[in-house]
Design goal:
Blueprint (H helix, E strand, L loop, with lengths): L6 H4 L11 H20 L10 H4 L1 H7 L4 H18 L4 H29 L7 H7 L17 H18 L4 H20 L3 H6 L5 H15 L4 H30 L5 H20 L8 H28 L4 H49 L1
Helix pairs in contact: 2-5, 2-14, 5-8, 5-11, 5-13, 6-8, 6-14, 6-15, 9-11, 9-12, 11-12, 11-13, 12-13, 14-15
Length: about 375
């Protein structure tokens, strides 16, 4: 029997901030491709004159599960965001998140809107597009320029919790407490009609983020028995919250229900995949192409849906496979352009500017006192 000691809980040893998991980057890209496959060959859309379930039923039966790529993203995010926040001051965390999210997002919003306007398919006003640029449009009841943006607001609420933790000094013990209290309170809030609290605590996805954070603690200290136990608890929570939510999205957007057992298997696989690339010898992979495709994941995710559907709508006469491959190629090419042309040159400048602005505001606040 393993003795549970408090020692692992008291250590504040962080993984090096420069450490890179190439396989985790590759896994992010796989998650993006799963979502892309769902949108192109499973989700109901006017891009196809005939539903994918009819012209490629075998592909449809597999790609409809691509919805779970979002759940995988959330587990990965729990791991990566905690790793990036560890040992970093609040202003550094805020600046890094803004620089990471906004440059590619701004360009993606404007590019997607331009394509939709040019093709006569757009429905939002200029003011609504402008509000989308803040990434805070959902709480104001403004429609998304692109449907995939709903996940960004989910991520923002998670970042808020991490920021609150940083205000009180981030420690293993606090992360362990958060990883169990957060999902429990979120579910109780939903069950007892505290809808706003449940919404802010992203009750359906909380166990995914919490589980990712626990995997980070386990990577830091594999003998952290408490972290392993709480990870198991969060996997069980995720099966009962995130699993049904993903199943409902599949049925509502494809018209095809999925067996209950698949929810269980795919949620477990999401956690298992992150454990595989961070705890096993796979973590030592250093192939540079994995890091490259990982860097393209975020802009690819932002750009692929509506633009890809436009490509499909204009090329499907050459066959569904050609249309999907062309849509995928165009989306990846645009993602590469955004990453190399926007993110790489401008994100570091934005991070420094935001951090400097926070520092100036703090200095003014001290002088005012």
């Amino acid at each position: 029997m393993v003795e549970m000691t408090p020692a692992p809980l008291l250590r504040e040893r962080a993984l090096p901030q420069t450490q890179r998991y190439a396989a985790l980057d590759g896994l992010r890209f796989v998650a993006a491709l799963a979502v892309l496959a769902f949108h192109y060959t499973a989700r109901e859309t006017d891009a196809w004159t005939t539903p994918a379930s009819e012209f490629a039923p075998g592909v449809f039966d597999v790609s409809k599960y691509g919805v779970f790529g979002v759940d995988l993203f959330f587990v990965i995010s729990g791991f990566v965001i905690l790793m990036s926040a560890w040992g970093r001051p609040l202003d550094g965390f805020v600046a890094s998140r803004i620089a990471r999210l906004y440059p590619a997002y701004w360009v993606s919003v404007l590019l997607t809107a331009a394509v939709l306007i040019a093709t006569g398919a757009y429905w939002l006003s200029p003011s609504e597009i402008a509000i989308n640029l803040t990434m805070l449009h959902e709480p104001f009841g403004v429609d998304h320029v692109d449907g995939v943006y709903w996940t960004l607001w989910v991520e923002m609420r998670f970042y808020l919790l991490i920021a609150i933790l940083l205000c009180f000094r981030l420690t293993e013990r606090k992360v362990l407490v958060l990883s169990v209290v957060w999902p429990v309170v979120a579910v109780l809030a939903e069950r007892h009609g505290f809808d706003f609290l449940a919404y802010m605590l992203v009750w359906q996805h909380a166990p995914l983020f919490a589980g990712g954070m626990l995997i980070y603690l386990i990577v830091r200290e594999r003998r952290n028995v408490m972290a392993w136990m709480l990870l198991a608890v969060n996997i069980a929570f995720a099966i009962t919250t995130a699993g049904p939510e993903a199943a409902q999205r599949i049925e509502s957007t494809t018209g095809s229900p999925i067996p209950e057992w698949t929810q269980f298997v795919l949620i477990v696989m999401c956690f298992g995949a992150v454990l595989l690339v961070t705890l096993t010898p796979v973590r030592r992979l250093s192939w540079s192409w994995l890091t490259t495709v990982g860097a393209l994941t975020y802009p690819l995710y932002l750009l692929h849906e509506h633009i890809g559907w436009k490509v499909i709508a204009h090329t499907q006469q050459y066959g569904w496979l050609v249309a999907v491959l062309l849509a995928t190629t165009v989306s990846i090419a645009l993602a590469a352009g955004v990453h190399y042309g926007i993110e790489r040159p401008f994100a570091p400048k934005l991070r420094r500017a935001v951090q400097a602005a926070i520092g100036d505001a703090r200095s003014h606040g001290r002088r005012a006192e």
